[in-house]
Amino acid sequence: MSLLPRITVRRVAGLMTSLFLAGLTYVMFRTDRLFIRREYSWSLHARCLLLQHQLFLVGVPGWSPEGHACRQLNGTELTLNATELLQNAAVTATKGPEPLKNPKPAVEPPVPFDRVNRLRGYVGVPNATKELSLRCRVCAVVSNSGQLLKYEAGNEIDQADCVIRMNDAPVLGFEKHVGNKTTLRVSCFQSVYLVPASGSLYDQAGKSALLGWGPPKDMDTRRGKAHRKLKLVSEMNRDLEVYMLTQERMGYSANVYKEETGKSLEASGTWLSTGWFSMLVAMEMCDVIKVYGLSSENYCKDHPNDTTRYHYYVSKLKELGPKLKECDFYKRHQRTPNGAHRFFTEKTIFARWAHHHNVTFHYPSWTP
Ligand SMILES: *[C@@H]1O[C@H](CO)[C@@H](O)[C@H](O)[C@H]1NC(C)=O
Ligand SMILES: *[C@@H]1O[C@H](CO)[C@@H](O)[C@H](O)[C@H]1NC(C)=O
Ligand SMILES: *[C@@H]1O[C@H](CO)[C@@H](O)[C@H](O)[C@H]1NC(C)=O
Ligand SMILES: *[C@@H]1O[C@H](CO)[C@@H](O)[C@H](O)[C@H]1NC(C)=O
Ligand SMILES: *[C@@H]1O[C@H](CO)[C@@H](O)[C@H](O)[C@H]1NC(C)=O
Ligand SMILES: *[C@@H]1O[C@H](CO)[C@@H](O)[C@H](O)[C@H]1NC(C)=O
């Protein structure tokens, strides 16, 4: 007689557990689908950054950084508002287009932004009247790839008249592999957030320039958070000249992609990498460009078991840590329908530019 209620209690408890698990699975599944692929085990932080880009790309109506998912704290940390994240993601979870596999060959190199004043559109922060004026004979464009750890290219890199670096890539501790000179650092807005305003990255460079890029809301000269941070960086580093891309410049860079591939960024489900902006500015300010650490578009295909790290250093973004393999990351991005980089496509395009500009690729060395 006393068995009956006990069984009922167990059944109810079992049912509730199942319901709870089903609900949890559903939420997890949904959440994963909204971003990239299920195999991604990125932290919320990285997902959040990715989402910002998706929102930026598709131009969600009513979306603004003030009310969006990633809340920035003291310039380095972000928290997540899951409610907003899901609401926004529901709007953007559109099926992406096919990733680009075989972009149409360009018949011409990119048409310059301004044939006369080649560096127009790179303006000072906070003084927007000032324009970047760098002219170099030989430039070394140093990628952030783990490839560089296989070589000791540091001395060779430093021999270039100008050295261009990207995002949060450090020099300290890696001089042997990446050299110790920095003339220009090109940085995406997220890296501007990640790097402390006064720290070794900017200190080490001595007299040098920082060139930031980002979406309109972040770069807005009155209210943009990235602009504010760049201003702070400029105030705290007297030797550093700080610049940013105007939105006209951003539009031009996007248009170059469209000219090269026949597809807009939106249609390709992509956003440009810092490498893209770095190559463009290098072609505008340098006579000769030597690219270091950038493997060819075929490298991953030709080296199926390659274990080269994505970055030569450990980024503050833990997802981009030492275990992340470059080829895996490239491949994942290429096949992700939306909000991803097209590293292979960009490499194909850089290789094409090498036929029109004096661009060579080193460590690993390859000829387009
Ligand atoms: C940044 O904010 C986090 C969280 O509020 C805090 O733990 C951390 O100490 C802060 N860092 C600095 C440098 O202020
Ligand atoms: C998260 O966003 C929702 C919707 O905008 C808002 O109602 C809620 O207060 C936010 N929560 C936090 C902790 O900021
Ligand atoms: C801003 O830059 C321009 C051009 O270099 C210069 O003429 C002007 O004096 C600068 N303004 C300030 C307030 O520094
Ligand atoms: C770094 O800088 C110093 C001089 O500033 C130089 O002597 C040294 O060889 C440089 N290169 C490397 C790879 O450390
Ligand atoms: C890559 O690894 C697979 C499986 O371990 C092996 O069969 C193959 O021969 C390797 N390929 C190369 C090019 O080393
Ligand atoms: C590129 O620059 C190098 C170094 O100045 C030079 O030797 C080479 O001839 C140039 N190539 C072309 C195609 O202009």
From TrEMBL:
Principal location: Golgi
One example of a Gene Ontology biological process annotation: ganglioside biosynthetic process
Keyword flag Chloroplast: no
Cellular component GO terms, alphabetical: Golgi membrane
Catalyzed chemical reaction(s): a ganglioside GM1b (d18:1(4E)) + CMP-N-acetyl-beta-neuraminate = a ganglioside GD1alpha (d18:1(4E)) + CMP + H(+); a ganglioside GD1a (d18:1(4E)) + CMP-N-acetyl-beta-neuraminate = a ganglioside GT1aalpha (d18:1(4E)) + CMP + H(+); a globoside MSGG + CMP-N-acetyl-beta-neuraminate = a globoside DSGG + CMP + H(+); 3-O-[alpha-Neu5Ac-(2->3)-beta-D-Gal-(1->3)-alpha-D-GalNAc]-L-Ser-[protein] + CMP-N-acetyl-beta-neuraminate = a 3-O-{alpha-Neu5Ac-(2->3)-beta-D-Gal-(1->3)-[alpha-Neu5Ac-(2->6)]-alpha-D-GalNAc}-L-seryl-[protein] + CMP + H(+)
MF-aspect GO terms: alpha-N-acetylgalactosaminide alpha-2,6-sialyltransferase activity
Transmembrane segments: 12-29
Keyword entries, A-Z: Disulfide bond, Glycoprotein, Glycosyltransferase, Golgi apparatus, Lipid metabolism, Membrane, Sialic acid, Signal-anchor, Transferase, Transmembrane, Transmembrane helix
Annotated compartments: Golgi apparatus membrane
UniProt cross-references to InterPro entries, sorted A to Z: Glyco_trans_29 (IPR001675), GT29-like_sf (IPR038578)
Topology of the protein relative to the lipid bilayer: Single-pass type II membrane protein
Family: Belongs to the glycosyltransferase 29 family.
Protein name (record): Alpha-N-acetylgalactosaminide alpha-2,6-sialyltransferase 6
GN (gene name): ST6GALNAC4
